[in-house]
Amino acid sequence: MVAKRGAIVVTGGTGTLGRQVVRRLLEDEHEVRVLSRHPHPRADRTPREWAVGDLATGEGLDAALEGADVVVHCASAPAKDDRVTTGHLLEAARRGTRPHLVYISIVGVDRVPLRYYGRKLACERLVEESGLPWTTLRATQFHDLVAGLTTAQRLLPVVFTLGGEVRLQPVEVREVGERLAELAVGEPAGRVPDLGGPQIRTLRELTGLTVRARGWHRPVVPLRLPGKVIGAVRAGGLLTPEHADGRGTFEEFLAARGAMR
């Protein structure tokens, strides 16, 4: 990797994905600035390593992006409107140094009619039309998220999953973070190839693997749900078989994380 002259700002830098991006960039000795709504709890952190700004209101973003060469936009929340937060970020970027904007999206945002996916797709378009240099990567679901669907049911006497051909292609979040870091120090590339996990498995299989890894002895109950969203998923809407470039398997994730105990 070739070092950039200015800072690389990472939104959502304390989240599951953002931490991996920050880790890799720091390993490669880049100047990284984490954008957060809150001051860092350690007083010895300098402003260049930690910037306070609120994507929801836009407050503090101009100062947070000062001197930025690249912004990696990992902040996202299904319960909020990413179009608003992304819009505020883009406005601040245009007022400032006009950095390279690297955006992380999700495989299937244009095929699966979830409201959250629709907002992510709209954010892709905002980035594309921003007038800034940009790169967008779509990734499949993280191992953490898929396993979490099961572990969230730890207090139930049975474990529910989706039956039928509900197929996923989970990917290791560390690999997605490394790919984003690579894109951040490269030239703007527009929409780059998707990043999917190495295997396509049914959700029922993945649920069973998680149950066994945790040592649970309880039945797995498959549910068949109707609707356009499930129909789109059954049709392969969350898959990118031509880009199964991830290396870490779901079983390896479970073994490494202790089944998320």
UniProtKB/TrEMBL annotation:
Gene3D superfamilies: NAD(P)-binding Rossmann-like Domain
SUPFAM superfamilies: NAD(P)-binding Rossmann-fold domains
Signal peptide (residue range): none
InterPro entries assigned to the protein according to its UniProt record, in alphabetical order: ComplexI_NDUFA9_subunit (IPR051207), NAD(P)-bd_dom (IPR016040), NAD(P)-bd_dom_sf (IPR036291)
Gene Ontology molecular function: protein-containing complex binding
Pfam families (UniProt xref): NAD_binding_10 (PF13460)
Domain NAD(P)-binding: 12-144
Name listed for the protein in its UniProt record: Nucleotide-diphosphate-sugar epimerase
Species: Streptomyces xiamenensis
